[in-house]
Specification:
Blueprint lengths: L1 E5 L3 H14 L4 E6 L2 H10 L5 E5 L1 E2 L2 E2 L1 H6 L6 E5 L3 H10 L2 E4 L4 H12 L3 H10 L12 E6 L2 E6 L3 E7 L2 E6 L4 E4 L3 H5 L7 E3 L4 E4 L3 E6 L5 E5 L7 E3 L1 H11 L6
Parallel strand pairs: 1-2, 1-3, 3-6, 6-7
Antiparallel strand pairs: 4-5, 8-9, 10-11, 10-14, 11-12, 13-14, 15-16, 16-17
């Protein structure tokens, strides 16, 4: 069995890979992707795996975006920390789901379920997976609550979103900063991945706000924006190539 693991946390990937080979040494881990764009590129350029283990929160947004960008004709077992309401949806549209941290007994049960699927059941599953495509379009405006008002902001005016302790800050390109109640994970699902990317755990940045890219220690990238930020913005070595491709992407909506 050939398995692709879509997971952006190294420890979670290593744990899942180790458990899979422990349960069944015949399982071959054929790849590990960490983002929406990387996953799409991998699926387009490699032989289709037998099964995909897919985290929902990826480095550049929601895994659901993958289904907008391409047809995925491979059974999926989700790994997720979503609440019960969302889990009900995954149950309908996936082979199975695994709550994080993944337990070996649940993983073994999910694999057993997958192996027992009949050809008819597998065909029906692949037909309904298109329901996972997000229904809403990307936002071009957002409303920021300020005291007793809601301020409409054009997304093209946003330089970055920054996670500060348990709060989020929105930095506009004119230097204005606002507090925002949503998490970066929630925000990422509403943003067009052509225009915004999750740089790291602290930042989502706008492509139009990037003014300088410095090759840093250990082949990381240090990113400068057209606004002052509370912390330096670094892109990891593993994501550097993907970031450079994103910054030069000329695709339009």
């Amino acid at each position: 069995m050939r398995a692709l693991i879509v997971e952006d946390e190294t420890a979670a990937y290593e744990n899942l890979a180790q458990m899979l080979t422990s349960i069944d040494p015949a399982i071959e881990i054929v790849g590990n992707t960490e983002s929406v764009r990387q996953t799409v590129r991998w699926l387009e350029n490699n032989t289709k795996p037998d099964i995909i283990f897919m985290d929902i929160h990826l480095s550049d947004g929601s895994a659901f975006t993958i289904f907008e960008m391409m047809e995925v004709a491979t059974p999926i077992i989700f790994t997720t920390a979503y609440d019960q309401y969302a889990i009900d949806a995954f149950r309908v549209n996936s082979v199975d789901y695994l709550l994080k941290p993944v337990k070996q007994e649940r993983l073994e049960s999910a694999l057993t379920k997958f192996k027992r699927l009949s050809h008819t059941e597998l065909t029906q599953y692949l037909e309904q997976i298109t329901r996972l495509r997000p229904a809403r379009r990307y936002k071009d405006k957002m409303l920021l609550p300020v005291k007793d008002k809601l301020i409409p902001i054009n997304m093209k005016d946003v330089a970055c979103f920054y996670k500060a302790d348990k709060s989020t800050q929105v930095f506009l390109r004119d230097g204005t900063t606002y507090q925002y109640s949503k998490t970066l994970e929630q925000i990422a699902t509403t943003l067009n991945p052509l225009h915004f990317t999750r740089a790291n755990k602290q930042y989502i940045i706008s492509r139009d706000s990037v003014t300088d890219i410095t090759i840093w220690f250990d082949n990381r990238l240090r990113i400068s924006l057209d606004v002052n930020t509370p912390e330096h913005i670094y892109i990891s070595k593993n994501k550097a190539s993907e970031f450079k491709e994103w910054i030069t992407n000329e695709d339009t909506e």
